[in-house]
Specification:
347 residues; amino-acid biosynthesis; 9 strands; branched-chain amino acid biosynthesis; nine-stranded mixed sheet; disordered C terminus; KARI; alpha/beta; binds magnesium ion; Ketol-acid reductoisomerase (NADP(+)); binds the ligand CC[C@](O)(C(C)=O)C(=O)O; Rossmann fold; binds NADPH dihydro-nicotinamide-adenine-dinucleotide phosphate
Length: 347
């Protein structure tokens, strides 16, 4: 089994006397900054003027321009949206890095696809939590953590791996487990996971199930509970004890249906298409498309996002969730992200 590091395996001294600039205060940024501060580290936040700046100040941080925060820091964690990192790096980060500093990422996209080429005299590492930022914060507050991968791209000081591990410990990841990776492995597996399984695969599965039932004349509310709401309850059982644990709790009828019909839905053809998705990621085809989409001001992204937000499942879901206040988490109430999809949730 691959080596998984926990709190007792990690030396944190290497980071204790360092100043950490967290650049960006969105999903990951707010979680890293708050968790690191509560773990005893010296954190400054780098931002442009705006909503996030206001939030970080309300949370008691020294907030500076990105250039100023970077010039004060020994370790710079870049937690901007992937598609904005190159421009901000070129404009405000690069010239403010000192030899021997470290620049870090929570996802390897821009280093792996050569959008950012760091100077040769700095350490470059990643600490990539395997979970959404709001849960990196929420689990830390609850005394637990979200697992993370760490990896070193460039080790100038000889301390890059120790710095990455101490950083992972600071955000609470070592409570759950920290695994070593490379920028290539993290980037390719993370993109594949979110596209084929966690986000793209899951939302497509939920919508297809909901549409199949409603198009057959069943009530949308029943279809919502069956295909979306109950998903979390089933996944909780898988998360807690694997597939067997979930199958222990469901009826034998459901388990037989799982065995008999599951492979009719996700079959060898589905797997072949998953392999195509993985190939597009590995060849850089996906990255190229995403970079071009942003250069064109996201025409497809915005159009699809609008259509998705108007899907019947979203309307029915909102009505039902309003009647179940217990399902609403602080993330929705406190949401500060600018992305359309997230504003839709808040509003
Ligand atoms: N979301 C997640 O859970 C995960 C994300 N990651 C990685 O973490 C990184 C950050 O992603 P995520 O947390 O989703 O990002 P968000 O979109 O949530 O946050 C972006 C932050 O960057 C700020 N920002 C945007 N543009 C600029 C700019 N030009 N100058 C200064 N600040 C700017 C925003 O501030 P403002 O309010 O001013 O717009 C906001 O505070 C990415 O590399 C991502 O792949 C990795 C694991 C999981
Ligand atoms: C699953 C999406 C993710 O990779 C994540 C939360 O881990 C992301 O990029 O947001
Ligand atoms: Mg991820
Ligand atoms: Mg990701």
């Amino acid at each position: 089994m691959t080596k998984v590091r926990y709190e007792n395996d990690i030396q944190t001294e290497v980071l204790k006397d360092k100043k950490i600039a967290v650049v960006g205060y969105g999903s990951q940024g707010h979680a890293h900054a708050l968790n690191l501060r509560e773990s005893g580290y010296d954190v400054v936040v780098g931002l442009r003027p705006g909503k996030s700046q206001q939030k970080a100040e309300e949370d008691g941080f020294d907030v500076h321009s990105v250039a100023e925060a970077v010039s004060q820091a020994d370790v710079v964690m870049v937690l901007l949206p992937d598609e904005h990192q190159t421009a901000v790096y070129t404009e405000s980060i690069k010239s403010n890095l000192q030899p021997g500093n470290a620049i870090a990422f929570a996802h390897g996209f821009n280093i792996h696809f050569s959008q950012i080429v760091p100077p040769e005299d700095v350490d470059v590492f990643l600490v990539a939590p395997k979970g959404p930022g709001h849960l990196v914060r929420r689990t830390y507050e609850g005394g637990a953590g979200v697992p993370a991968l760490f990896g070193v791209y460039q080790d100038v000081t000889g301390n890059a791996a120790e710095l990455a591990l101490a950083y992972a410990q600071g955000i609470g990841a070592a409570r759950a487990g920290v695994l070593e990776t490379t920028f290539q492995e993290e980037t390719e597996t993370d993109l594949f996971g979110e596209q084929a399984v966690l986000c793209g695969g899951l939302t497509s599965l939920i919508k297809a199930g909901f549409e199949t039932l409603t198009e057959a004349g069943y009530q949308p509310e029943v279809a919502y509970f069956e295909c979306l709401h109950e998903m979390k309850l089933i996944v909780d059982l898988i998360y807690e004890g694997g597939l067997e644990n979930m199958r222990y709790s469901i009826s034998d009828t459901a388990q037989w249906g799982d065995f008999a019909s599951g492979p009719r839905i996700v079959d060898e053809d589905t797997k072949a298409r998953m392999k195509e998705v993985l190939t597009d990621i590995q060849t850089g085809e996906f990255a190229k498309g995403w970079i071009l989409e942003n250069q064109a001001n996201r025409p497809k992204f915005n159009a699809i996002n609008k259509k998705e937000n108007n899907h019947q499942i979203e309307k029915v879901g909102k009505e039902l969730r309003d009647l179940m206040p217990f399902v609403k988490q602080p993330l929705q109430a406190k949401q500060s992200k600018q992305k359309d999809v997230k504003e839709h949730v808040t509003n």
